[in-house]
Amino acid sequence: MKKCSFCGKEVVIDKYFNRKSRCPNCGEDLHICLNCRFYSETSHNKCIEPKADFQRVRNKANFCDYFSFKDSVKSSSDKEKEDARRKLEDLFKNF
Known about the structure:
The chain is mainly alpha-helical. It has one domain (1-95). It contains one helix and two strands; from the N terminus they run ββα. It has one helix at residues 76-91, and strands at residues 2-3, 10-11. It has a two-stranded antiparallel ribbon. It starts with a strand and ends with a helix.
């Protein structure tokens, strides 16, 4: 499942997806660093793809050839965290 980084709603990517594609829900650009699987806050230039050009603006459409829309599926570790939090809340519910 792909999600817009601005509104958080699901986005369907088809064969016509390009640099000018916009979110059908909020109208923001989709071909942006924040939606890319290579985007990383902690990496140099905030991108883990070493060949990608530096992008000054991360929330606007760009011409990066390495763009790949990230999947927003919850990982098993996220599910485990939610289960642990729920069990902890249940444990302390009566106090």
